[in-house]
Prior knowledge:
The protein is an alpha+beta fold. About 15% of the residues lie in helices and about 50% in strands. The protein is built from four helices and 14 strands. Strands 1, 2, 3, 4, 5, 6, 7, 8, 9 and 10 form a ten-stranded antiparallel beta sheet that branches. β9 and β10 (about 225-250) form a beta hairpin. It is rod-shaped, with a radius of gyration of 45 Å. Keywords: Cell outer membrane, Ion transport, Membrane, Porin, Signal, Transmembrane, Transmembrane beta strand, Transport. One of its GO terms (molecular function) is porin activity. Its main location: membrane. One of its GO terms (cellular component) is pore complex.
Amino acid sequence: MSWKKAALAATALMLPVAAQAQTAPFGLNLAGFYVGAAAGVNLRTDSDITLSGGAVTGPFGVGIGNQNGSASWDPGYALILNMGYGFGNGLRLEGEFSFRSDNVDSVGGLGRQQYWRSAGMASTYAFMANAYYDFRVDWPVIPYVGAGIGYAITSYDQLTTTTNGSPAPFPNQTNIAGDDGQFAYQFIVGASMPIGSVPGLALTAEYRYFATLDNELNATRYQPAGFSRGSAEVENASNTFLLGVRYTFGVTPPPPPVVPAAAPAPARTFLVFFDFDRANLTERARQIIAEAANSSRSAGVTRIEVSGHTDTVGSASYNQGLSVRRANAVAAELERLGVPRSSMVIQGFGFTRLLVPTGPGVREPQNRRVEIVLR
């Protein structure tokens, strides 16, 4: 199976759970210790079988013909348990225990005749050390690749082939059995889907190509003249498709999104005008002050600036005092209308901040004012 097909198969395995999973931030690399488990379908590839010794010559040294054969297998199952550590940069290292089991479908070769019946099973226990790399991509799933090496023990339970319908232990039968440990290796391609509602939890889907060196087993050949014993070499390789779950310890939930502070309401300004050389309030002035008081309450204003101003007639010191008296008159009216004086900043500027620029000694009505600024 090509790597491209393997990647497509792993992606297809993730689709049934994708709709219900909530993802963590895209591109998140695993960091810290984790444990995992997975189960799935194991498709053992056709196994070439090579007989040697008495299993080839038969009793009395009479050859049986073809010493090579091949076994095909029914779909089996696989179970995986693992524990590892992620370094936060995409690299992960882990230890793994796996179990694979398959029943034989048929066996051909191994003699002059076509075998009519086949039986038996093979089970493989493997202890692997794996290395992975998680890719940082802006996808709902995090793809990864890996490889591993280790040691695998395969047990063959009476791999038996019979011709002419003869039952064991009568002639025309080949029996292969035994346990054998060999170097094992695997290649892995998969994807994980973090579950945002459970920090540290992720669903996984994987394809693995797993294989060992040829297994060395006992072989017994039954013929009409008797039986003989020898050995058999059997290939051991599998394509495995897995769905699993992984939990990483110490993962904290992501911080809540930062809610931008509401922009402050723009300042609102009210202008109260005065007669020449006066600080008393006109009826129109009281109406404007009342409107400002109502606005301050409805808008939740926390600061009110009350600033008095004058025109340019008279001395600077006289106009400074006049501007302060005007500001105090407006502040007193605001206070009477229920605005706390503690929320006010009261000040006078004389003729230093003219609304309408003029020269000295000019009676400009718009400069004779108090500005109420709500902040």
